[in-house]
Design a protein that fits this description.
C8orf32 fold, alpha+beta, 14 helices, Immunoglobulin-like, disordered N terminus
Length: about 500
């Protein structure tokens, strides 16, 4: 490795300004390093480390990609240091050619100023010493792999296998992530949705992990968030099925001035939603979800896009958040999506980009009391110890949150064939009437004994079930919290004759 140019520094009584340009060459190939340096004056407290990630570039020029730190932003510093300037952005490349490629902020120079003391200085010799001394601390690739948490290794290996030609992007994360962030990186690599494995970039994942960690370390509520909540609801780089872009720097820069005086997550979440309400208006858009940065810049979005924007905005300032929705209303046509946030030990709901003075207040609060079903999303597989799991799939979890909004009913369904024998592995659906047809709001597969249990809001449902050759249907009314049981007998599938009424519960 060769350090191809530290361009110098300039020191004054207010602090030091350092201008850096780094080139790394190894066998005519560009290399990547994550370099951490800090400055301290004898007798004074050290300024927290400044993280300088170095992006791989084809021409061998290593350009730093802006990341926040306490020394750069003034976060979690004494009042005397909170006037520290933000980094000056010298150049930007905001192109995003294709899904999974982020608008990567690039810099020939990274300027930052610190005021750690009256006469703090960083000599050229010291800067060179720090860069060279820390450049080789990651160890060999095999050593790094062995250092990954054992609980994630099998799933990470599966990710690498399924990523195909894109596996090198995942390898980049393994090799370049800071040692103290390997646990977070391992969680992400082990839970990347399959649809992302062939397109997601290492730069995007590394940026996401570092910015999330910096926000957690810098904001007053960060350390109080349990690790499992942080990993499932702050750390993830996506929400649902939106286009992948770099969003953490954008939202952090926009929101930090708004929430810097907040002392609790609850207070900050209310302020985040107030900011978003100023930025976005509801308007039906394309069926495919647009990315959250586009939603804010366009100023319009439908409910799911507004929810995605709120969730990433909250996560950018270390507030755990997730998307939530009802598949179909049972009282009227259409459906709806909103956000849930975890603050100070419990979950709350809020309308996305719907400013209110407190949480658990939204226009849909009354309609949700009559919801047939409400679901919340979780990145990765959740243990579900404190929540009711609706379904766990490959690298995702759906949580049944119906009980948060209404008094749910438990419906146990026994499915048999014409001879009365249990029908195992038979899927059943609970349907409501919406947009002129019966729409499924919940489904389940029967167990070996032919039983399946559905948790639904009060109301009337058309229950259907069957196989490729047989089927059955039955209307059911749920009005009490006590469990109810019914039997479906499979036979020749046929539609109901004449009229079928499904009553709305006022």
């Amino acid at each position: 490795m060769r350090c191809m140019g530290v361009l110098g520094h300039d020191v004054d009584h207010a602090g030091c300004v350092v201008e850096v340009e780094i080139r790394e060459m190894s066998n005519n190939q560009s290399a990547s390093r994550r370099i951490r340096c800090s400055a301290a004056t004898p007798g004074k407290a050290a300024v927290p480390g400044i993280s300088i990630p170095v992006c791989r570039r084809g021409n061998g020029l290593a350009r730093t990609s802006h990341q926040p730190s306490a020394a750069m932003t003034g976060l979690a510093l004494p009042p005397s240091l909170r006037s520290v300037d933000r980094p000056q952005r010298i150049a930007e490349n905001t192109s995003s050619a294709g899904l999974g490629r982020r608008p990567c902020r690039q810099y020939h120079l990274s300027r930052f100023a610190t005021k750690a003391s009256e006469k703090s200085g960083l000599s050229l010799f010291c800067l060179l010493w720090v860069l060279v001394a820390t450049a080789g601390g990651q160890g060999s690739p095999d050593d790094v792999r062995e250092a990954l948490p054992e609980a994630y290794r099998a799933d990470i290996q599966e990710s690498l296998r399924l990523a195909g030609d894109n596996a090198e992007e995942l390898e980049k994360v393994i090799e370049e992530v800071d040692e103290d962030l390997r646990e977070e990186a391992s969680f992400i690599l082990a839970n990347i949705p399959y649809r992302d494995l062939g397109t997601v970039t290492g730069d995007l994942l590394l940026e996401n992990i570092q910015w999330a960690h910096t926000a957690r370390e810098s904001l007053p509520w960060g350390p109080s968030i349990p690790d499992d909540i942080y990993r499932h609801y702050v750390l993830p780089y996506r929400v649902t099925q939106e286009r992948l872009v770099s969003w953490r720097p954008f939202f952090f820069d926009e929101l930090f001035p708004r929430i810097r005086e907040c002392t609790t997550m609850y207070e900050a979440a209310v302020e985040v939603n107030r900011w978003l309400d100023e930025k976005i208006d509801f308007k039906t858009s394309e069926r495919r979800d647009q990315d959250p940065v586009t939603t804010v810049r366009r100023g319009i979005g439908r409910c799911e896009e507004m929810t995605i924007a709120f969730v990433v905005a909250a996560r950018s300032v270390c507030i755990p958040a997730r998307s939530c929705w009802t598949p179909w209303w049972s009282l009227n046509d259409n459906n709806h999506a909103w956000a849930e946030i975890w603050a100070d030990g419990q979950w709350y709901f809020t309308g996305s980009a719907e400013a209110r003075e407190k949480l658990n207040e939204a226009w849909f609060k009354k309609p949700a009391k009559h919801a047939a079903a409400v679901y919340s999303t979780c990145f990765g597989v959740s243990t579900g110890e404190e929540e009711r799991i609706y379904r766990q799939g490959d690298r995702y979890t759906l949580i049944n949150s119906t009980h948060v909004y209404t008094d749910p009913c438990e419906l146990r369904v026994k499915v048999t064939d014409t001879a009365g024998a249990p029908a195992s592995c038979c899927r059943i659906w609970a349907n409501v009437f919406n947009y002129g047809w019966f729409r499924a709001v919940a489904s389940k597969e029967t167990d070996d004994e032919g039983w399946a249990t559905l948790v639904l809001g009060p109301g009337e449902y058309l229950l259907t079930g069957g196989t490729d050759t047989t089927g059955s249907w039955r209307k059911v009314r749920l009005s009490a919290q006590e469990p109810d049981s019914i039997t479906l007998t499979l036979g020749n599938p046929s539609a109901p004759e004449g009229f079928t009424w499904l009553r709305y519960f006022p």
